[in-house]
Amino acid sequence: MALFTANPTKPITPSSISWSLSRSPPFFSAACFPGVRHERPVKRFIVLATVMGEAKPTVLVAEKLGEAGIQLLRSFANVDCSYNLSPEELCSKISLCDALIVRSGTKVTREVFESSGGRLKVVGRAGVGIDNVDLSAATEHGCLVVNAPTANTVAAAEHGISLLTAMARNIAQANASVKAGKWQRSKYVGVSLVGKTLAVMGFGKVGSEVARRAKGLGMYVIAHDPYAPADRARAIGVELVAFDEAISTADFISLHMPLTAATLKMFNDESFSRMKKGVRIVNVARGGVIDEEALVRALNSGIVAQAALDVFVEEPPPQGNRLVLHENVTATPHLGASTTEAQEGVAIEIAEAVVGALKGELAGTAVNAPMVPAEVLSELAPFLVLAEKLGRLAVQLVAGGSAKVETVNDQSPAGEEDKDPRQD
Question: In the chain, fewer beta carbons within 10 Å around the N or the C end?
Answer without folding.
Answer: N
